[in-house]
Amino acid sequence: MSDSEDSAQQISNETKHAAAIFSDSLMEDCPNFTVNLKNDTQDGNGMDVASVEDNEFAKDQPDPDNIKMFVGQIPKSWDETQLRKMFEQYGRVHTLNVLRDKVTTMSRGCCFVTYYTRKAALKAQDALHNIKTLEGNKNEGAKLKFTSQHTLLQNKR
Fold first, then answer.
1. All domains of the chain, ordered by start, with CATH?
2. For residues 83 and 44, what is the distance between their CA atoms, to the nearest angstrom?
3. What is the pTM of this model?
4. Cβ contact 139:102 at 8 Å
5. DSSP labels for 64-101?
6. Strand, coil or helix: what is 156?
7. What is the pLDDT of residues 79-96, one digit of tens each?
8. Does 154 score more than 50 pLDDT?
9. More confident site: 99 or 3
């Protein structure tokens, strides 16, 4: 095996290891979370190439076509940790910002969430928008509301 093949194999193994550590930590916090890692495939030269599913865990920046989503109807008692656990069931979260009152620092009952991949954001939106109700909301039975530039563009068509 050449040096470049050794290097590619090492990077592939490091990616798998990082994904395993990340998924193990999520499993402790989110027992319903499942990680779908595909087996590596080989390119035309017989070298292992990490699959797209693996790469989400190795990214340090979100995809250029990611979606920043506004989410409303969140209980004011929920903090970033609780929300992150819920959202990460659908993919790796890049940023999560709970909107707060400047004076009291109390939550305003909404947040912005950005996933590393557009696919994960759309998966979360499909699973939660007008479907999921969170306990502790003053408006009993109020379902989560998602709004994003993607949603706004679809509604104009």
1. 3-58 (no CATH), 68-156 (3.30.70.330)
2. 42
3. 0.59
4. no
5. TT--EEEEE---TT--HHHHHHHHTTSS-EEEEEEEE-
6. helix
7. 999 999 999 999 999 999
8. yes
9. 99
Contact between residue 35 and residue 105 where contact means Cβ atoms under 8 Å apart: no
Contacts of 92 (CB under 8 A, 6+ apart): 22, 56, 57, 59, 115, 116, 117, 120
Question: Rounded to an integer, what distance in angstroms lies between the CA atom of residue 121 and that of residue 103?
Answer: 31
Structure token pair of residue 55:
């790469």
Mark out the alpha helices in the chain (DSSP H runs).
3-29, 52-58, 80-87, 118-128, 149-156
Interval 2-19 mean pLDDT:
53
Residue in this structure with the two tokens 């009291």, named with its chain if needed: 104
**pLDDT at residue 50, rounded to an integer:** 42
Does residue 126 contact residue 115 with C-beta atoms inside 8 Å?
A: no
Alpha-carbon distance of 116 to 61, in angstroms, equals 7
Question: What CA–CA distance (Å, rounded) separates 53 from 66?
Answer: 16
8 A C-beta contact, residue 106 and residue 76: yes
Sign of the Cα pseudo-torsion (90, 96, 99, 105, in order): positive
C-alpha to C-alpha distance for 22 and 5, rounded to whole angstroms: 26
